[in-house]
């Protein structure tokens, strides 16, 4: 190789390494700005089962939802996003035969008129961190400790009975084709909504590896009309509702959560 060729090759190498360095800096900066997390996301699947007694015998329904928990870092965390959670799945439908169909929602009745979205399956009942702590390093961060807890839930797959106060808001539809025919159902008095002899027997939540449940759109066909969180009672002009029923706060997302 001639001296001039060596000099040109050396100059090329310098430019090449500078280029690689700049690419690495840009990627590192982008990772820090957009995420910066050192803890990988965790996914937890849980099954909610609702049991009802009818004159014809016991009926039950269940659904499996998945919550994905991410642990942002960098500027994302600095902006206040300590955790991000995404729920995918659908509410429970309990077919009561000639009496109708009972539906759960992703809302707690106690907060239905104020805020919502907290009544996903695994969020309905506490699996105490003290009991399912999981293994982690002595100096583990809060995120790492929480990730270890979620890992332990997935390993041990606990099951818990729901207290009545933790049962999500229950509803029925006068017509399955009409979302505005929805009415709240009192779990202590299912007979008023479904007829004599129909009583709420109980509900459980368990961590599972079963597939996410699909199929509620076959029962509530109007869910197919939109992939966003439409309200069951449309209000395009944003006028005050003609009545104060809390069911007016229900949206499609209270029965089905799609991947974002």
* Total count of strands: 10
**Low confidence ranges:** 27-36, 75-81
What is the radius of gyration?
Answer: 25 Å
| Helical content (DSSP H or I, runs of 4+) | 10-25%
Q: Give the percentage of residues in beta strands.
A: 25-35%
Summarize the topology:
Elements: H1 3-34, E1 42-54, E2 57-70, H2 74-78, E3 84-90, E4 93-95, E5 101-108, H3 142-156, E6 159-161, E7 168-173, E8 182-185, H4 190-194, E9 199-208, H5 216-219, E10 256-257
Antiparallel strand pairs: 1-2, 1-9, 2-3, 3-10, 4-5, 5-7, 6-9, 7-8
List keywords for this structure.
260 residues; alpha+beta; four-stranded antiparallel beta sheet; 5 helices; 23% helix
Question: How is this structure best described in words?
Answer:
By secondary structure, this protein is of the alpha+beta class. The chain has one domain. 23% of the residues lie in helices and 27% in strands. A six-stranded antiparallel beta sheet has the order 6-9-1-2-3-10. The termini are far apart. The relative contact order is 0.17.
